[in-house]
Amino acid sequence: RTTPPFPSFSRPPLPPPPPFPYTHIMTVSGPMKQYQVVGRKAPTEAFPNPEAYRMIIFAPNKVIARSKFWYFMQQFRKMKKTTGEIIDVNEIVEKNKNQVKNYGIWLRYDSRSGTHNMYREYRDLSLCGAITQLYDEMAGRHRTRPRSIQIIRTAEIAASDCKRPDTLQFVSKDQKFPLPHRVDSAKRGQKALSDTTFSVGRPTTCFR
């Protein structure tokens, strides 16, 4: 008596693993930077010298700056990453970062209900700092994802052109910052608050 062979069960091949979920999503980690990205369509025999396009993009690093460049170019022109090339990517660094300036930012963002235009004002030492404030505030107030924000225009505005109350309270000429409570700081050869290292009574910080 022979035993019949066991049936062979062939398993179907496993599907390929999904791509890393954050490769196509823009995340903001750290301060934003300003980049100048120059790209063009890949040269061919019919068009050996295609037209180049330059774009100013705010992104945390060069990788995301390149990705955003192709995202916008695919909307404006018939050009995408597979049929184009990036010529140069440069970071733009501001020269004067020692003075607080007023910045106006025009933007467009996508919410749960639709697409909205918005104008905001910020005070910062640099434009990149103002853009970083913008992304933080839009995430907190409107639950906006960084990939849903498109910056249309930025400008350094004068104090007379400011419109928002948060900015107007700091642009007046007679602005004062009173210090009602002051604590003596330790100087060279002296101790703070008292001559002794340990004191029984609480220090008085009210200004007299």
Could you characterize the architecture of this molecule?
The protein is of the alpha+beta class and 208 residues long. Helix content is 18%, strand content 26%. It has three helices and six strands, in the order E-E-H-E-E-E-H-E-H. It has helices spanning 62-76, 127-142, 165-171; strands at 33-41, 52-59, 84-92, 101-110, 115-124, 149-157. The strands form two sheets. The protein has a three-stranded antiparallel β-sheet with strand order 2-1-3. Strands 5-4-6 form a three-stranded antiparallel β-sheet, with helices on one face. A hairpin with a 4-residue loop joins strand 4 and strand 5. The longest helix is centred in the middle third of the chain and has 16 residues, at 127-142. The protein starts with 32 loop residues before the first strand and ends in a 37-residue tail after the last helix. The model is unreliable at 20-24 (pLDDT under 50).
Number of strands: 6
Helix and strand composition category: alpha+beta
Question: Outline, from the CA principal axes?
Answer: extended
State the end-to-end CA separation.
Answer: 112 Å
* Cα radius of gyration in angstroms: 29 Å
> Which spans have pLDDT < 50 for at least 5 consecutive residues?
20-24
State which percent range the strand residues make up.
Answer: 25-35%
The whole-number mean of residue pLDDT values reads: 83
SSE string: EEHEEEHEH
The biggest sheet, with number of strands, parallel, antiparallel or mixed sense and barrel status, is:
3 strands, antiparallel
- State the strand order across the main sheet: 2-1-3
Helix content: 10-25%
Q: What's the helix count?
A: 3
